[in-house]
Structures are given as structure tokens and as C-alpha cells.
């Protein structure tokens, strides 16, 4: 026993010593190597990260992620790659890297084999051009032999562990959004090898997924157990064991993903087989899940998904997606239901080649359910294409909506009525080719009612008898009858009768009468923000044929009646705010829809319209219809700035192009977007118009909107104390760019006031700050606006005349420098009264034609080139008395602020013009000094530039005349 005791004591002793030694080493090693590790990790970060990295504090310890020796940084912030270097890509409370202890002790090398990231937020972004913010890792150049003597840190990962991450992936080029919160991830494997198997465990508390702003998953939980073979040489991921659970729905998938230089290639098959309908329903949006908890749901379902192909924005290639959903022998019932929904069956197949909706194929082979003996619904629908859709549909059923409501256990809505339908359709639907499937069918609804929890009163007495027939597959034989469609809401009956025949040349008979409180209707369906107390009152009788209006046979039309709108809010996808129609009184008289009284506001702007629209029937019939009209427009105040597409406003239904442009350019205003389906002329009279701080008073003239372009003709307004006349054209190219032509004349304006109040004067005529007096202007220009609706000066082309009627020029640096060099102080105060200066503009250069003025007894003349950035290349001839017949040359180069003078010289230094790309709206090259050349070469270049500028001016005049 004594011997055993000694052995045990010896074991305990050495165990204690070993533990103490290990603990001692765990404390001492971080103290021995802090400089080595910190220095080499920083070296690695600076060498391999393109984004700016910042953090507060570093730690070297065994105890944060025992037993690994880890370097930890607190409160890390990593900026994105260009062009997102000012945006945050990643923030994390703690980032730790595990250090290989053997390499550290024996080789004094830092080998990173583990990564831990805790409490992180990642914002991954790809803009509309395909530029990404996550390209922050700079790999070693290929083709170089490895330098074994190189010092610093290296990565040979075996473990990645993320805890409590929030990740947002927003790809504007693919129109994909993934938003994951509460992500926990563990990845194990030989991550440093060229080919390795990665074992992954992933849990996400909530994840959202949308494509083209349509959410296919919202607030879903996700669990994944995956084994992925990764080939780092080819950047290929082969999915071997992949088990996924979305809420209660299990999903297995196999395949591969390869990352390419211009996109990716994939072939992934996913399936959820032999699951229940309840498990399938668990992936519905959250608002439906409470309903499912209290509802008895039985039956089986299967889901199959396959995506295959390449995605490349540059090559315009996209993968194909196939989906199949099967539901078998389903049953849905609620405790209050007299009968359950039985025999629920569905077989849905979707095929989307190249993610192209024009090739979309939908095959609903079967959708059926029973609600008792006389309540059965059966449908099969097969379509292919979108703009030209092949269709084969058979829909038949009689459904008591109240029984359906009870069977489903709907809580927030009460629906009633007997719906009976029988529709068969087979053929091609194409608006462009005016084809419609051969159809015979009807939809009847009797004694309908809709009531929700959001509003106390129902929409009731809903009756609809609709018949549709087409005998030969063309628009010519298409007929639709509504006889009637009627309902009551809060004591106000509304009814519509319509008989529509021959949609190739629509023969219509429509009668509509009633009062509709739009504000309360929207409250019934919990729609907020559309309007406050909007009211629509209609008493219309429309009777005629489409061709009567298009051929001018207006006497055959019999359109009459009134439509009154009050307090209606309306939005368009291209404007940031809502229009508020205070009152709109419309009267129909044959071909015209008269605006008898129309008062509206938009932000701070107000409008009163009086006039008429033509083609209103065609506009609502044809997809590409254009509204024609003529109006008188009166306004007290119009603020153009608030119409710019990217301005902040209450409109939440903007187009996806505007929405993405706003996200990618948060500090930009954008340009004003013009509707493409209007052809309207306006006699405009506005007391005050403001644009980017510039005030125009008493604007009067002719304005028109035609196919996305705005024209001003014979328009005048007061500006800087003078009356300006203007002809102009404006057209947007995108939410961020626009182009314009303008021809303007202004008599006798104050130069100093113009210089102080108009930005463009300060940019285009910097010398104006040294000029006082009265000037007249006759000028033509065309150019582009940038993303803040400011002129892009290198895009300007045109020219014109400036008349110095009564001016005083003092201490103009360029002239003073000439005077100083020739000993003539009178150049500080030259006499330029009545001088005409003709200039032409092209590629950021201003070409000045020769003009002569007086300086005491001298007769100097000036010609040459200057630029918007202040470069000078001018020729001055100083004419001597008597009459200036004899003179000597002077060359002025340098800049406006620092002119350089050469007397008795004709050899200046030319200016190479700027290069501007009209398609991308970018300056490719700014103007710069040319190499010194002979006078002959300079003369040729100058003549060529001046000819370009004069031709540009002529083209502006031609364009305005043609418009």
C-alpha cells in the first residue's frame, strides 16, 4: 500500500507540475511573442487588404478561445473596396485568429489556422454596374516562385467560427436581396489545402430573400448541415452532403457552384420530398403562420427545384430555373367550419430559361378542392411566354365564399357570396399582334360581401355577371360584358354596365354611376398613405368606336358625363412625392375629356389646369397609348428641385431604377424624369419658378411634353432684373443623367448681379467679376446634366454673341498684365462700350473670335482660346495711332489668375481640348497644354477647333428649329 501511495503521490506531483508548467507557459508565451505576432499580423493585413482596416485594442491570449493561442482585436471596422472605400463592409466586436503554436515557438512564424468573429455586421453590396465592395483581399501575383525567406503571417485555416452575425447581401445587378440576422456558423476542414472538404453547421434566426423586390422568403429560420468539397484552384464548390431546414420544411440539395471572372456557373438540384402540407406552409410569410397554428392541416407535399447555367452580366447569360410543387390529398379545416376543405390537390410546374420572363412557362396541371357536394373547384392552366403567351386554361367551379372563409379559418376578413365560374381558353395572347385565345366562359358572383377588422362597415351587395367570348383567336372576335358590376358602401350604391366588342377597333358601351369614398375603401383593406379622404363621383355614359376618334369622326361618338375627384393623393414611380388633387372636375364630351376645374399641389408647388385631353379611351385600351391634350397652366409657385427623381419624399412606390440609383448615389438629387406617354401642349403662366437657387419671375410662354421630352418655345421670364427669352428642349436619359438644348436672348442685364446670382455665369465667364455695367446676350448651347442636375461643362457645345453695351472693365488681370509689359497703364481701364464678342464652345474650350476695343489712343484686338478651367492661349494685337493701322503682336498664355505675356510674338502654346463620352456622361480627359508647335501647326489646330465649335452652334439651331 505504501508503494501504491508513493506512485499515486508521484503521479499527482508530476501532474500538478505539468499543469502548473502549462499554465505558466500559457501566461508567459503571450508575453514573449507579443511584438512578433502583432507586427506580423499588421504586416499581413496591410499587404493583403485593399480596404481600410481599423480597430481599438489587441489581445494575445490562450483563454478567449481555449486552448488556442489567439490574437484578438476589439471593435474592428473594415471599409469596402473601390469604389466603396468610404463605406463600411464589416464591423465586429471581436475578431480572433488562432496561431499555430509549434511554428511560433520553433520557427518564430505566425501561421493562422483558426478564425473567430463575434457580434458582427456585414454589408455586402454590388451596384448596378456589377462593381462589388467585398474585393478587399489582395492575393499574391500568380506566376512567381514562392520566396521561402519571406517573413510575415500566412493563412492555413482549419476552423472558421462566426457567432451572432447580421449579414445583408444586396446585389443590384442581379436584383437580389438577402438579409440574415442572428447567423451562427462553424466551418471545419483543411481550408489551407487546394482541395478540401468543408464541414459546415449553420443557424440563422431570421432570413429574408427577394428577387426583383418580390419577397420569396420573409423572416424564416434556417438550419444547415453541409459538407462541401472546395477546389480553390478553380473556385468550385461541390455540394456533397447538404441538409437544410427552412422553418419546419426539410430540404436536401446537391450540385456545384463555380466562381468565374465575370460571374458564376452552377448546377444545383434541391428537393423536399415526402413532407406534409403543414411543413410546406411553414415557409409562408409570418402573417400567415398564426392562422396555420389554429387550423387543422393534413396531407402530403413534394417540392423540387433545379437551377443550372452561367450568370454573367457582361455576356448577358443567366441560368435556367425549374420548380415543381406537388400537393396530395390535402385537408384544411377550422373548428367553426360546417365542412372542411377536402381533396386539396395541386401539381404546379415552372420553367424559367435564362431567367427571362418572356420565356416563362407555367403549367398548373391541377388545382382542385371540395367544400361539400355542391362546392367544387377545378382548374388547370398552362402558359408559355409573357409578351406573347401561349395559353391553355380550363377553370370551373361553384364556391360558397362564406363556407370557404370558415373552412380556412380566416380571422381578419369576412367574405360571403356565391361564386360560379366556367372558363375555357386556348390560343395565343399578344397585345402587339392583337391575338387572344379562343375563349368561352363566365364569372358570376351573387350577394357578395367583404369586411375586415380594419374598418367597421363592409362592402356589400356585390354582384357581378361577366361573360367573355372569342371565336377565332383574334382581337376582332373578342367580346366582354359586365351586366352588371355593382356594390354598396356606406349607403352609396355604385354600378357599372359595360359591353365591349371587337378589340381591334373597340366598340364600347359603358355606363357608370356612383359615389366612392376611396379613402375609406383603402382603410377596409388596411392600405395606408394613399389618401386621407379621397372621393370619386361618377356619372358617365360612353358609347362609340375606337376608330371614330382616331379618324376624326367625332360626331359618331356619344361620350358624356362627369367625373369629380376630391382630395385624392396619387403617385408615379418616377417622382419622389405624391400629387394631391384638391379638386378635379372632368366633363366628357365626345372625343374630349375637359378639365373644367383642376387644382393640385406637389410639395410646395401648385397647379391650376384648364383644357382637355384627347385619346383617353385609347389610352386605357392600348398598352402603348399616348395621351394628347391642350391646357392653360397657371401657378403661383413651382419648385423644380422637388421633382428631381432622387429627392426624399413620401412616395414608397418608386421604380426599381430610381430606387437603386438612390441607394448607389445617396447624396445626389438625380434629374427630372419626364413621362413617355404624353403629348400635351401648355400655355404656361407661373408667377415664380425656382431651380437650384435661381429665381425666375413671371414666366410666360408655350411649353409642351412629347414622348419624354419637354420643349419651351417663345418663353420669357424675369431674371436678375431683366427679361429673358428662351427656346429649349430637355430629355432625361436615366434617373442620373439628362441632356438639353437652349437658345436664349437677354437684353441689358447687370453683369455683377449675374455673376453673383448665377452659378453658370461664374463658371463660364470668370472674367465677369472684374466687369461692371450692362450687357446683352444671344447664345445657343447644348449639353448634359449630371446626377445633381448641374451642367457638365465639358459636354457643352454651341456659341453666340455678348454685347458689352455700357460696361466698365477695371483691373482685369490678363489686360493689366499686357499693359504692365508694354508700359500702358490704360489697359487697367479699357473702353469696351459697344463691343461685340463672339465665342464658340466645344470640349471645355471657349474660342473667341477677333474683337477690337479702345485703350486710350491704342486699338488692341483679341482672339484665341480659353478654357473653363482657366487656361489661356490668346493673341493680342496692339494697334498704334493713327487708327491702329500699324501694331505689334502679344501672346497671352498661363491662366486667368496668372497670365504670361510675350511681346512681339505670335507663338503661343495651344490647349488640347477635353474628351467627353456622351454615352457614359464622363470626362475621359481634361483639357491641357499642348506641346509647343510651329505657328502653322497651331493655326491649323485652332481653325479645326473653331470649325467644330461653329458647327456645334449651327447644329443646336437646327435641332431647335426641327423640334
TrEMBL record:
This is AsmA protein. The keyword ATP-binding does not apply. Keywords: Membrane, Transmembrane, Transmembrane helix. The chain crosses the membrane at residues 12-33. One of its GO terms (biological process) is regulation of protein targeting to membrane. GO terms for cellular component: plasma membrane. Signal peptide: none annotated. Residues 940-963 have a biased composition (Basic and acidic residues). It comes from the Bacteria. Residues 925-963 are annotated as: Disordered.
